[in-house]
Each structure stands twice: as structure tokens, then as C-alpha cells.
Amino acid sequence: MLATAAPLPHNPPMGSTMLTAGDVLTLSPALPVVTIDDAKDAAPLARALLAGGLKAIEVTLRTDAAIDAIRIIRHDAPQIAIGAGTELTSGHLKRAV
Hints:
This protein is an alpha/beta fold. 36% of the residues lie in helices and 14% in strands.
């Protein structure tokens, strides 16, 4: 699952922010998969990835900080596409969206 506020190369359905695999590959040459232990590290990491030309990130849900990290990235770096990985429960999925 990847979502973004960034402009896409096509027009997705009205109100949709979900991306296809092709969208992600268009946005970024690679998809960094990260595990964030401290949510305060999320915004600097997202900004560094953007500065390096990467416009997508997948945050694994392996830590207690992951959901907060996704929220912080969405707020502080809205131009990066954010994916949530390692959804272990339906609760993870609901909180990540």
C-alpha cells in the first residue's frame, strides 16, 4: 500500500491517493524500506531521501514508532509517497491508512 499527496504522472480516480506499482517506479528509481525506531527521525529521513532524488518510502510496521513516523512524514514531507509494510494485523492496516 502506497499513498502520496505528490502529483502523479496520470490522473487517478477523484479523491484517490493510492498508487500502482507503475506510479511508484515513475516517482522514484528505488524504494527504500525503512524501520524507524524513533518517530523523531522520520521527518529528517524523509527530507534526506527527497534531497537524494528518492520520492517514495516504505515504513515497516515492526516498531511502536512506525504509525507516528508515517503521520510525521505525511505532514512534514507530503511530496513523498509513503508505504506501510509488514502489516501483521488488520489493525495495523487500518491505522496505517
